[in-house]
UniProtKB/TrEMBL annotation:
This is Large ribosomal subunit protein uL4. One of its GO terms (molecular function) is rRNA binding. One of its GO terms (biological process) is translation. It comes from Microvirga brassicacearum. Forms part of the polypeptide exit tunnel. The gene is rplD. Pfam families: Ribosomal_L4.
């Protein structure tokens, strides 16, 4: 599979052969959904908590005598049914993370890349380098390329001027190749890979 390579100025810079086993798969929605769910669950803080009846500092004196009042047999004011009492079955601090096999995660990434190729939403760029860290100029270049919502994947390191210029642009994410993930690929309309990122991905899945 061949795709044209472009530059930040919108000029042609040749073409590249993409590996069919990485970029030519028929995307499976179930794999993508599993991986996205795993990612979002893993990043949840899980710090939500409420006070149960054992956490409430209220009197434990029996409210009234056991028999003869016609009321229920209450033994503490911290019971959930009372105003100011503890909450029954409230959330507790916990981890939301669950396991997903490494092979499934790797396969889901390949399917996410293939989905962008199938939708004609993959752009290959020669490199992401700027002489000045100017956001305004980069916005103009993105406008000519039709990038309103995009994930840009560079090489092992992102050039400093480009990273500074791009970080203030809404709906534009910039990541090094080792940070590529299914959720960020799917949440943006376009996927922009540098030539170095393509080489690194093909070496990773070899």
């Amino acid at each position: 599979m061949k795709l044209d390579i472009t530059t930040l100025e919108g000029k042609s810079a040749g073409s590249v052969d993409l590996n069919e086993t990485i970029f030519g798969l028929d995307p499976r929605a179930d794999l993508l959904a599993r991986c996205v769910r795993w990612q979002l669950a893993k990043r949840q803080a899980g710090t939500h908590a409420t006070k149960g009846r054992s956490d409430i500092n209220r009197t434990t004196k029996k409210l009234y005598k056991q028999k003869g009042t016609g009321n229920a047999r209450h033994g503490a004011a911290s019971a959930p049914q009372f105003r100011g009492g503890g909450r029954a079955f409230g959330p507790v601090v916990r981890s939301h993370a669950h396991d997903l096999p490494k092979k499934v995660r790797a396969l889901a990434l390949r399917h996410a890349l293939s989905s962008k190729v199938k939708d004609a939403s993959l752009i290959i760029i020669d490199d992401v380098k700027l002489s000045d860290p100017k956001t305004k100029g980069l916005i103009e270049r993105f406008g000519k390329m039709g990038l309103g919502s995009a994930l840009i994947i560079g090489g092992v390191e992102i050039e400093a001027n480009f990273q500074r210029a791009a970080r203030n642009i809404p709906n534009i994410d910039v990541l090094p190749v080792q940070g590529i993930n299914v959720y960020d690929i799917l949440r943006r309309e376009k996927l922009v890979l540098t030539k170095a990122a393509v080489d690194a991905l093909e070496a990773r899945f070899k």
